[in-house]
Amino acid sequence: MPQAADFHFDPAGEVAVLTGDWTAVEIGQASDRLAQALAGAKGATIDLRNVGRCDTSGAFGVLRAAQQNGHQDKILASPEVERLLKMVSTAIQAEPTPHTRRRPFYDQFDRIGHGVVDVGLAVVDGLVFNGHLLTAVGRAITNPRRIRWAAVFALAERAGLDAIPIVATTTFFIGAVVGLLGANLLRQFGAQVFAVELIGISVLREFNVLITALLLAGRSASSFAAEIGSMKMNQEIDAMQVLGIDPFDALVFPRFLALLLTIPLLVFVATLAGLAGGLVVAVTALDLNATVFFQRLVDNVGITHFWVGMSKAPVMAVVIAGIGCRQGLDVGGDVESLGRHVTSAVVQAIFSAILIDAVFALIYMKLNV
After folding, report:
1. Which among 78, 276, 297 has a CA at the least distance from the CA of 174?
2. What DSSP designation does 13 have?
3. Are 325 and 228 in contact, with CB atoms under 8 Å apart?
4. What is the pLDDT of residue 39?
5. What is the per-residue burial (b if ≥16 Cβ within 10 Å, else e) of 275-300?
6. How far is CA 233 from CA 240, 243, 321, 329, in A?
7. With bands split at pLDDT 50, 70 and 90, how would you rate the model's confidence at 95?
8. What is the structure's pLDDT at 287?
9. Residue 203 burial (10 A CB sphere; 0-12, 13-18, 19+)
10. Percent of the chain having pLDDT more than 70?
């Protein structure tokens, strides 16, 4: 059972014998009473050998009472308590944490300057990465036997084919939402039948490739960055270089090629799923049958919008794979760096996918396509 911290003096009044548990819970006012008692007992010794339990709070109370009255050198304790007293005494004598001064306003310009330098270095590193990747692509074209097809197909299955369910589900609901919005908006003008064209153009031209790219940015780019970053942390990439294996040939190019091969398939699946979602809305909300739906798609939408959307797929694949692999190769030797670069891979891939889609929209608008 825990006992409250207490003390008493021997008959001669020369030794203060501490009893009970000198812990944070049981110490109470015992340390203050000990300091007052020691003030009137010159040359007294503090005996901690009968103490039940003692933690840092109790040790601090004993040391404070002893130091206030000059008894710090007259303490008797077991080896365990003596080590605890020594540790607490060292902590007491440590220098206090310096007060952090507030940075003046003009230091913000220093941060801005460092940020600009970091952006410039990132651009240079990106150009170096792109050049190395183009070199690896050139080697693969001139000598196809260098391509690690087993790794390419394994990555294509994991990064591409395994993403079909989530891509199809997401674009199905996107197509349904576009159909519902179009039907409600156009019903005010008695032109709800034109919601079919709205579904077709939005899904075939924009949402199929954009939703696929965003899902792969969060799924594949983060996976590539985490896999390569873990190998970088474990010095596996350094070992590959020592063995004469180029990491771009063994790690970057297979992921680049796998995503390049699978993203057109995913965009096609997204197109079918988006149209299926729009068809469900057309049948249930617009009272159109499937024949009318697809006939209006063929007559008024055409195949051009489909090829416009598909033309963006290879560019999205190159950018997403490149960002994921580059962030993985930039990982340092700690877990914090890994998490930071995985987050950067996802954010940069999503931003790049949206930016590329906007650039393509401007180009095709100028081309009147």
Report:
1. 276
2. S
3. yes
4. 76
5. bebbbebbeebbebeeeebeebbeee
6. 13, 18, 20, 10
7. low
8. 81
9. buried
10. 94
Please state which of the ranges 58-72, 144-158, 249-263 shows the lowest mean pLDDT: 58-72
Q: How many CB atoms lie within 10 A of CB 333?
A: 11
Structure pTM?
Answer: 0.69
Q: Report helix, strand or coil for 163.
A: helix
- Give residue-wise pLDDT tens across range 336-355: 889 999 999 999 999 999 99
Residue of 137, 99, 98, 128 lying closest to 255 (CA atoms): 137
Q: What is the spatial distance between Cα 172 and Cα 213, in angstroms, rounded to a whole number?
A: 15
What are the beta bridge partners of residue 45? 15
**All residues at 6 or more sequence positions from 146 whose CB lies less than 8 Å from its CB, including other chains:** 139, 140, 249
- pLDDT, mean over the chain: 86
Residue-wise burial string across 4-33, b where 16 or more C-beta atoms lie within 10 A, e elsewhere: ebbbeeeeeeebbbbbbbbbeebbeebbee
Alpha-carbon Rg of the chain, whole angstroms? Answer: 36
Q: Say how far apart CA 49 and CA 52 lie, in whole Å.
A: 8
Q: Given the DSSP bridges, would you call strands 15-22 and 6-9 parallel, antiparallel or unpaired?
A: antiparallel
Q: How far apart are CA 122 and CA 74, in angstroms?
A: 63
* 7 beta partners: 18
Measure the CA–CA gap between 369 and 366, rounded to whole angstroms.
Answer: 8
Domains of the chain and CATH, by start: 6-93 (3.30.750.24), 115-366 (no CATH)
271, pLDDT greater than 90: yes
CA atoms within 13 A on the CB side of 109: 3
Residue spans of beta strands (DSSP E) within the chain = 6-9, 15-22, 45-47, 51-54, 75-76
